[in-house]
Write a structure and sequence with these properties.
heterodimer; A: about 140 residues; mainly beta; 2 domains; 5-stranded mixed beta barrel; 1 helix; globular; B: alpha/beta; Peroxisomal Thiolase, Chain A, domain 1; 9-stranded mixed beta sheet; two-stranded antiparallel ribbon; 12 helices; 11 strands; binds zinc ion
Chain lengths: ~140, ~400
């Protein structure tokens, strides 16, 4: 019997992914199609970012995708001068939490935004970002 | 439930590169606690071993330590909640004793952070929180706490200078704590001197001086029921309140970025159980892995209103002579932060304070003391209130 292939799409997420497979592997396909996506529970309407395969409010696994769209507000951020192993070549970079109202998104602020332009409450959007290594993630750009 | 006391406390010196194995390191804190309690290993009914396993080469260290400490054939349990492992261990020991299952329990916390290379440690730092959704962006502990510092600055106008004042206070007491890894003086001016290490950027707005150091160390607490405490101890210190909480690991699942919700929640539980309010606390040990963590703790524990933590440090109210002395043993910033041993060391300081045995760090006749110990980036919160009566 042939060994069953394991779907390891999630290993493409970010500079280094520490997770290779998840029930929300389609997140990677969505990124490749230019969309940053979360999930909504079809049974109770709970909205999740990051996406989840299972709803802890009603215990359903009947989920569908939604796109992170529109403008969010920058809640907080930090610019790193040191990085964990494997991320040194990305330095310096800025991590951030952006509030989209019904959900928040954690990620990096685009290196195209100058430090002096980054302020609390500024409007940002989540944009798909392809890395030279072939990996893929998303960054926050000016909305 | 039965009343529960702490009848023995101990810790090793916190050092860089401990020249021995984890069992020998754990023995140091254990021996001090046993000599303090003046009991024999046969008086102990169970042990709780606490560490953060990503630093251990030894799989399942509880059994190995129980043997080396002479605590077989009694049962031993392993507990971890990252940096608050030994406070969680104390909560387990409290439960075992209060329930009547055991009479005397040893809580042994340890961490030999130098067990792994600094490259391995760096790699693990990147996996400190949500490995699926955050780590791929290149996160690490100082950067997470830095987002809280930024959140606090944005909301309340706190400044890097306020944080520097916290480090200066820590160093004031670190210099007189012979168990601390960092014992050099730190001045406010070092933070504005570009040539001084303290001012070096780590993750904005945090600088080198805002961060505690890794260390190797162990701690031990001997916990007993009322009947045994009165037989064994002249000065038992009582566990009056013990609270614990958790929250979303991913920052995107949180609502508060100017404080730690787990500290607030665990504190509420502990105050309620003890039947007291923040103004009754005479001395506190709070989790200052980064300066901002101490500032937030002032507010989250009710020593200051939200946003007013900076006033407490500016007016030196958290110094030994102030209205609410905090971390007058130097805190994690001076002592170092050997993950699994940290909570036990904080409890030890408060027990010594309540017994009037804290030496040069002693505050005036405290009745209630509080220990605030956080695991991860505000992932786990533990607050323990101790009292003389
Ligand atoms: Zn649901």
């Amino acid at each position: 019997m042939a060994k069953k292939d394991i779907d390891i799409r999630f290993s493409k997420f970010g500079t280094i992914s520490f997770t290779s497979t998840t029930k929300v592997n389609d997140f990677i396909d969505k990124l490749e199609a230019g969309k940053v996506s979360g999930t909504i529970c079809k049974d109770c309407g709970a909205k999740y970012f990051p996406p989840r395969a299972d709803c802890c409010k009603c215990f359903s696994s009947n989920m569908e995708w939604f796109d992170v769209s529109g403008k969010g507000k920058l809640l907080t951020y930090s610019k790193l001068e040191y990085a964990p192993i494997g991320f040194e070549n990305d330095l310096p970079y800025c991590i951030a939490v952006v509030d989209f109202g019904e959900y928040k998104v954690f990620g990096r602020i685009s290196g195209d935004i100058a430090d002096s332009e980054i302020t609390g409450g500024m409007e940002l959007k989540a944009v798909v970002n392809k890395l030279p290594s072939g990996q893929i993630n998303y960054v926050f750009e000016k909305a | 439930m039965r009343k529960v006391a702490i009848i023995g406390v101990g810790q090793s010196a916190f050092v860089r590169g401990y020249p021995g194995s984890i069992r020998e390191l754990a023995f140091e804190g254990f021996r001090e606690a046993m000599q303090d309690a003046k009991i024999a290993t046969t008086d102990i009914d169970a042990s709780v071993v606490c560490s953060s396993p990503e630093y251990d080469k030894q799989r399942s260290p509880a059994g190995v330590l129980a043997e080396y400490l002479g605590l077989t054939p009694q049962p031993t349990f392993y507990v971890e909640t990252l940096c608050s492992s030994s406070s969680t261990g104390l909560k387990l020991a409290y439960s075992l004793v209060a329930s009547g299952l055991h009479d005397v329990v040893a809580v042994v916390g340890f961490q030999k952070m130098s067990e792994i290379t600094s490259a391995e440690s760096q790699e693990r730092m990147g996996r400190g929180a949500d490995i699926q959704w955050e780590s791929p962006f290149g996160t690490m502990m100082p950067a997470y706490y830095a987002t809280y510092a930024r959140g606090h600055f944005l909301k309340y106008g706190t400044t890097p200078d306020d944080l520097a004042l916290i480090r200066v206070k820590a160093a004031t007491y670190g210099q007189i704590n012979e168990k601390a890894v960092y014992r050099k003086p730190v001045t406010f001016d070092m933070f504005s001197d570009p040539d001084n290490t303290m001012s070096g950027p780590v993750a904005s707005p945090l600088r080198v001086g805002d961060c505690c150091a890794n260390a190797d160390g162990s701690s031990c607490l001997i916990v007993a029921c009322e009947e045994k405490a009165k037989i064994f101890s002249k000065k038992p210190v009582w566990i009056k309140g013990i609270g614990a909480a958790s929250t979303a690991v991913n920052l995107s699942g949180r609502d508060l970025f100017s404080g730690l919700s787990v500290g607030i929640e665990a504190g509420k539980q502990a105050y309620k159980m003890a039947g007291i309010t923040p103004k009754h606390i005479n001395v506190a040990e709070v989790h200052d892995c980064f300066t901002i963590a101490e500032l937030m703790a002032y507010e989250n524990l009710g020593f200051a209103k939200p946003g007013e933590g900076k006033e407490l440090i500016r007016s030196k109210e958290t110094y030994r002579e102030g209205s609410i002395p905090v971390n007058v043993d130097g805190g994690l910033l001076s002592k170092g932060h050997p993950i699994g041993a940290t909570g036990g060391s904080q409890v030890r300081t408060i027990v010594l304070q309540l017994r009037g045995e804290a030496g040069a760090m002693q505050v005036k006749e405290p009745v209630f003391g509080l220990v605030h110990n956080i695991g991860g980036v505000g992932l786990y919160g533990n607050v323990t209130i101790l009292g003389r009566e």
